[in-house]
Design goal:
Structural class: alpha+beta
Distance between the termini: 78 Å
Bound molecules: 2-acetamido-2-deoxy-1-O-phosphono-alpha-D-glucopyranose, magnesium ion
Shape: globular
Radius of gyration: 24 Å
Order of helices and strands: HHHEEEHHEEEEHHHHHEEEEHHHHHH
Helix content: 40-55%
Largest sheet: 6 strands, antiparallel
Number of strands: 11
């Protein structure tokens, strides 16, 4: 190594000297093979040229592609904003690679997506709204399908882009959270007559919290990445709530809690707001529309929005449940649902907030134990931070549970 280091020092530019270490490779002759395998695993970002040449021509889109940039903060699919030059102006589209590890049948998922968006567009027209703005639309492939499959078996779709829109990862003003509640409540209302039996279940047991608990236990049992010792406290946290975890499945089995068509991923950032007026325009991310409990759509919004920090904030002293935002959301959701919720559903709203937060925490934790293969991560331990963050919120909610029930009762009486 000494002559090598000496040679590098003499022949490389001054800038690198002292900073650059020359070390023996750990993988020896296997380095190339390992590197190539990694490249294959990464499913790297598509470059602009391939998007323009391979993907765009497969869709029913006019013009010449000018740009394509990664877009949004989703944890599951890969999303790009594509700009086309057409007739002297530009038109934009959302291009997405559907995560085929998460969604087993992207083709069937897209059947759901198409059926639901077309149904919603009709509802919007009936109410005198603008379907191009208040809903998204599937752009068909050149051969009339809802997606295009590449030779590597990747599924791509193109969705209309709502201009002058923006989404938020954190509530900036209570009014915004209230508006999002009305929008999600209304979304459920608009789909009240959609034939639920026609929907394909894109992810089985998606919000079946007892199954999610079992998946966490399985991950802990296997402990493939030797991370269990680090999360023993978190596993105990979930286990201590085992009885609560079964609340909705029990109520459903007793015929008290009905299945409805639900969105299932009602984070604030799955709503587009108008950049200029600040008003919500439309609900996006329709991958998980399935029959489910309507209260979970409420609960998931609370989980993500009624908090003082982002979902992956690691400093738990900054993570607090915000009961004022909870109140704002209860008011909006009940208004948006237009009387469509049963007494049992209304009574379960506080439980649903806790359920979705606990469930999401367990999912993050299971993914951490499984080596971070489900949710996208951009740093080590991000899923563990997310899990702890969610569990902190659950503890906060437990302390304020009576208060939460009182708030729900107050607005239920008004609607
Ligand atoms: C995922 O794709 P995205 O980021 O909108 C996940 C949700 C989780 C959420 C946590 C299909 O949603 O269930 O609540 O991350 N979607 C899927 O932020 O698993
Ligand atoms: Mg999303």
């Amino acid at each position: 190594m000494a002559p090598l280091r000496d040679r590098v020092a003499r022949t490389s530019f001054g800038l690198a000297q002292g900073k650059t270490k020359v070390l023996a490779g750990k993988y020896r002759n296997d380095a190339g093979i390992i590197g190539a395998a990694l490249l294959g695993l990464q499913e790297d970002d598509m470059d602009k040229k391939s998007i323009a040449e391979i993907l765009i021509p497969k869709f029913d889109i006019e013009g010449v592609m000018e740009d394509a940039v990664p877009y949004g903060n989703g944890h599951i699919n890969d999303t790009y904003l594509v700009t086309m030059r057409v007739n002297g102006g530009t038109k934009q589209y959302v291009l997405q690679r559907i995560n085929k590890h998460v969604f087993k049948r992207p083709d069937k998922l897209m059947d759901n997506f198409y059926a639901v968006t077309e149904f919603i567009r009709d509802e919007i027209i009936k109410e005198g709204g603008d379907p191009e703005r208040e809903s998204i639309r599937v752009i068909k492939s050149s051969d009339g399908r809802n997606f295009y499959m590449t030779t590597d078996g990747d599924y791509w779709r193109v969705i209309s882009y709502v201009t002058d829109s923006v989404s938020y990862d954190k509530v900036e003003r209570p009014q915004q959270f209230y508006d999002s509640a009305v929008a999600f409540g209304k979304f459920q209302y608009m789909l009240r007559n959609f034939p639920a039996e026609e929907l394909y279940e894109t992810i089985k047991d998606f919000h079946n919290t007892p199954v999610r608990y079992q998946q966490l236990m399985d991950a802990a049992e296997k402990d493939n990445f030797e991370r269990r010792a680090e999360v023993e406290k978190e596993i105990e946290f979930a286990t201590a709530r085992l009885d609560f975890i079964g609340t909705f499945e029990r109520a459903h089995a007793e015929g008290k809690l009905p299945l409805k068509v639900t969105h299932n991923d009602t984070k604030l950032n799955n709503i587009l707001f108008d950049k200029n007026t600040g008003k919500p325009i439309c609900v996006i991310d329709l991958d998980t529309i399935m029959p489910g409990y309507s209260v979970n759509d409420f609960g998931d919004s609370i989980r993500f929005g009624a908090t003082t920090a982002l979902e992956d904030e690691a400093d738990l002293s900054k993570v607090n449940f915000d009961i004022q935002l909870f109140e704002v959301y209860v008011k909006g959701f009940l208004e948006g649902a237009r009387g469509g919720l049963t007494d049992c559903e209304i009574g379960f709203l506080p439980h649903a907030a806790m359920m979705m937060t606990l469930e999401c925490g367990m999912r993050f934790l299971a993914d951490y134990l499984n080596g971070d293969t489900y949710f996208k991560t951009s740093r080590p331990k991000q899923n563990l931070d997310r899990a702890r963050n969610q569990f902190k919120l659950v503890s906060d909610m437990e302390k304020q549970f009576d208060e939460m029930k009182k708030i729900v009762a107050k607005y239920a009486a008004k609607n």
